[in-house]
Every structure is written in C-alpha cells, then in structure tokens.
What we know:
Protein name: NmrA-like domain-containing protein
Pfam family, one: NmrA
Organism: Trichoderma asperellum (strain ATCC 204424 / CBS 433.97 / NBRC 101777)
Keywords: NADP
Distance between the termini: 42 Å
Number of strands: 10
GO cellular component, one term: nucleus
CATH topology: Rossmann fold
Shape: globular
Amino acid sequence: MTIRNVIVTGATGRQGQGFIQALLNPSNANGPTAPTYSIWAVTRDTASPAATRLLEIEKSHGNDIRIVQGDLSDSERLKQIFSQVVAEGGIFGIFIVLPYPGLGNNGGDEERQGKAIQRTSFALVDLAIDFKVEALVYSSTIPPGPDLANGVDASRLAKREIELYCKSMGEKGLNWSIVQPGIFMENFDGLMGALAVSVFSQGLQKGTEMLLVASEDIGKVAAGVIQNHERYTHKTVTVAGGSYNMDEVKKAYKEVMGKNMPAFPAILAWLALKLSVGVQHVVQDTERIYQARVSGGYPTLEEEIEAAKAVCEMQDFRTWLLKRKEKQP
C-alpha cells in the first residue's frame, strides 16, 4: 500500500478541514491498492481548540494526521517541516490555504495581509520545487476577469500574483493546480452573516449574481484534484455550487427555514459601505466578477466551473440550507 504525505496549511480552517476529511474518506477509493494519505497539518498553535477539534473530527484517522507547529511567516521553520516530511517518505503534495481579510478589515489591514500572503506563498512554492513535491494545489479566489489589473483589494491582487508565480514555476517543474472558490455559503451564518446579507442587498445592483459554494465542497474538489493531479496539472478550476442574486438567496432561505433571513438594518449596511474599505472592496469585486461573466470578459470561467463540477457533486444553496436545518436542535 502506497502512503502519500501531504502538507496542509490552513488545516484548522473550513477549507483545510474539508480537504482533510475528503482525502482521508475518499468516495472513489479503488480497493486495497488505493494510496493512503498521511496529513501534516501546519498550524501556529498545536494546542488550540481548532487543532484539537480537527483531531476529534478525524478520530478514526488519528494516526494519519499530525498537527505540526509552524508559523507560516517563518521561512526557516517551514523548511524544517519540509525536511522532516521528506525524511519520512517524501512529500507527495501540498494544499495551500491562506486567510482572506473579509468584511471587517480596512484598507491598511488588506494591504498588510496581502503582502504577508504573497511572501508566505512564494516561500511555500519555492520549497515545493526544492523538495520535489509532486503536486501543489493553491486555493486562490475568483478574479474579476483574467486581467490582473482588474483587481480591487490588495489581498485579491496578492492571490493573483501568487497564481502567476505558480504558473511561472511550472517551467521549473512545479506541478501546480489552482482552485478558485466562490463566496462561502457559511458567510451568511451568524452575526457577520446578517451583516453580509445587508451589505450585499444594499451594495449590489439588483440582479447581480454571486457564485456561492459550501466550504466543505472546496475541500472535496481540492482533494479530488490532488488525488488525480496528472489530470489537473497546470489547470485552474473554479468551485461554485450555484449562481444567485440576493433575492434568490433570501427566497431560498425563507422557503427552507420558514422565516426571513437575518439581516442588519439598512442604515447600518449603508454606513458599512461608506466607511469600510474592506466592505467596499468585497462588493465591488463581486460586481466585477458578475459583469465579467455576463460580458464575456472572463471567457474561460464557465469551463473552469464545469471542470470543478466534474471532480465531485456540489451542493446548491438550498441543499446546503437543508443540511444546516437538519443539524439544528
């Protein structure tokens, strides 16, 4: 039986957990000859509740998950981790997931985090080449068109720069694949979800559609890509379970949950749109992505969406809501 070591950054987050769960519980395992995977989950704090929760979730695979302490901004520590994995059988793959600032951050936060994301990713890509990693999957973001200059916020621009860096390293033997997730359906959960509902309702033009995806499905697609990396080497897939405007989102929520979707008062959304650079950028990029889709400004997008759907079946928004409802007490 072949054992494949896979390094995962962002392992305790939604995408990382979804990836690990899909990789350790494959739906398409080909009997006893199928490879098994050993996960090296890199996290800043190995004793954090999130790290403990990851081991609890995958209790039956406890021996297949190692929680490894590592600050992603520390290039020397990252090199030590790669060396350790190589000493225990080599590195088959790496799944790179890095944080995105989101609605609550200002322009300065975005710029600083964007630069940090870029430095870390470049270091990981360089290590992947140096240590002869067989497959690298990078989780990016859907750009508002194929032109890098179309980006709005610093972190989105950074992620596009990282994509370009991965692609340029293909000439040096890097077997890269890019996963571009849509807007997380989970972003409509809880207090921040109520803010997101109000901000998108107020900020987007009526009829503008968002590409939505359940975070666990991103992990499933990324796992499928790394399991079949020969098929997806030097390719980009865009992960989306469906395309919806805000009226459709709110209608589906009411039909499934039997009540109106929680939302902040319109005046608070208006203030957020006026005062928060982060909120402005999220809304502007969502608008630009939609306009690029309908105008043909991103001609390969639909093909990339279909490529992701070929990896695994994904949940639409209504299915995701039904699953959430079943879990409610």
